[in-house]
Design goal:
There is one protein chain. 39% of the residues lie in helices and 14% in strands. By secondary structure, it is of the alpha/beta class. The protein has a seven-stranded mixed β-sheet with strand order 1-7-6-5-4-2-3, with helices on both faces. A five-stranded mixed β-sheet has the order 8-9-12-11-10. The protein binds pyridoxal-5'-phosphate. The site of pyridoxal-5'-phosphate has 14 residues, from helix 4 and helix 5.
Length: 392
């Protein structure tokens, strides 16, 4: 089988049948002519494979799905209009009222909001197992274990092999959000996880110009996601965005290597700085998840978080940055910085924020592809304005 860099360039794509175009064209069409009454009937009866309507399937989108599935080592993928559309479709099509979802957090604030505000309103129980053994958290109604690793925003690491083994033994579906690691660094399916979800908005696109999502796994398990998740819920990816993703993913392995190298240098710099109270990066030997990360990640990724001890210090630091843009999202070629406490996690319950380490002094950095020396110079000059942290 071809190696990852080769798959990133070639998987899912082939010269266009009509024209020979090497790059997959943007099939910017909502509908496809059947070419006859009887074929229409066969297509709708599922007796013949073919394109009917872009809400369900489109050739450009299919190429993106095939490339992502190949990178993740999965049989198939289903693309969605955003990461949240993918996660919502996953949960709402695979679970039913009376079922329970158990998660290992912290989770991206939007996922947490979906679970607590909407999923629960449909009669599906939500249980946080972040800080207790899974065996204690699951019950007879548990149908899904959901895990994010490295987790947003504190880079907490969960052991995917352990989660998969636990879930398999009990017939529970395991789901991993692989947005931060990408298949370049971690392949959850090979570790036994059943389904992988992505915010493709982030590293898969890589250029900050797309909002997209996907679920990857065995074809049979994904059937309800296409049949109900797309057909009924309708959060479909546009062909143009699928084209941008195909283009971005060709360089995913190269970009991830550069993100990880830059992030490691940034993390080591921050760790030595007296104004920084704590650095969260799974590549640092003193990160609590370092050993597990070293086992399940090929490198430690491009995300770094730091605690400056107070909101005032975080504000002074963020307002002093010039190369890092203050913006949400991550995984772009441009470096980004956010203050989760006052932005993405603003609406999360205070007790939950504290428990998950989303403190007023926490800043999350998405280390882009600029020269790491320039990024470190920018961080150094911004930190010069920050009141010194109290150690501990
Ligand atoms: C880990 C993770 N999962 C899911 C999402 C949601 O994806 P999207 O913004 O594409 O809807 C995000 C967004 O930041 C995220 O960071």
């Amino acid at each position: 089988m071809a190696r990852l860099r080769t798959l990133a360039v070639h998987a899912g794509q082939h010269p266009d049948e009509a024209t020979g175009a090497l790059t997959t064209p943007i099939y910017q069409t909502s509908t496809f002519a059947y070419g006859g009454f009887d074929r229409g009937r066969r297509l709708f009866a599922g007796e013949e494979e073919g394109y009917v309507y872009t809400r369900v399937q489109n050739p450009t989108t299919r190429a993106f799905e095939a490339k992502l599935a190949a990178l993740e080592g999965g049989e198939a993928a289903v693309a969605f209009a955003s990461g949240m559309a993918a996660i919502a479709a996953l949960v709402l099509t695979l679970l039913r009222p009376g079922d329970e979802i158990v998660y290992l957090g912290p989770l991206y604030g939007g996922t947490e909001g979906l679970f607590y505000d909407l999923v629960r309103a449909y009669g599906i129980a939500v249980t946080d197992a972040t800080d207790r053994p899974l065996a204690e958290a699951v019950g007879p109604a548990t149908r899904m274990i959901y895990v994010e690793t490295p987790a947003n925003p504190t880079l907490r690491i969960h052991d995917l092999r352990e989660v998969a083994r636990f879930a398999r033994a009990r017939g529970i579906v395991s789901v991993a959000d692989n947005t931060f690691a990408t298949p370049v660094l971690t392949r959850p399916l090979a570790l036994g996880i059943d389904l992988v979800v992505h915010s493709a908005t982030k590293y898969l696109s890589g250029h900050g110009d797309v909002v997209a999502g996907a679920v990857v796994g065995p074809r049979e398990r994904l059937e309800p996601l296409r049949a109900e998740g797309l057909r009924h819920l309708g959060g479909v990816l546009s062909p143009f965005d699928a084209f941008l993703l195909l283009r971005g993913m060709k360089t995913l392995p190269l970009r991830m290597a550069a993100h990880a190298e830059g992030a490691m240098r940034v993390a080591r710099f921050l760790k030595e700085h007296p104004a920084v109270r704590r650095v969260f990066y799974p590549g640092l030997e003193d990160h609590p998840g370092h050993a597990i990360a070293a086992r399940q990640m090929d490198a430690f990724g491009g995300m770094v978080a730091l605690d400056l001890g107070s909101e005032a210090a975080a504000r002074a630091f963020l307002d002093g940055l010039t190369l890092f843009a203050q913006a949400v999202s991550l995984g772009d070629v441009d470096s980004l910085a956010t203050h989760p406490y006052s932005t993405t996690h603003q609406l999360v319950d205070e007790a939950v924020r504290r428990r998950q380490g989303v403190t007023p002094g926490l800043v999350r950095l998405s280390v882009g592809l600029e020269d790491p020396e320039d990024l470190i110079e920018d961080l150094a000059q911004a930190l010069a304005n920050v009141p010194r942290a109290v150690a501990g």
